[in-house]
Fold this protein.
Amino acid sequence: MEKEQIEIGKKVWYYPILGGSERKEAVITSGPYEISGTVCCKIDILSSVVDIENLKER
């Protein structure tokens, strides 16, 4: 996903392994922010942040 697409409450697919086939349903719970040059956000199924490249809109 792109930074502009990140919205709190949006339903997404989370891919634990980038390019893998396994995916999990999730909901975005924070706006986007940058950590060491990587754009991240929070989702409801994890307590840590995720790289927005691992998300796809449902």
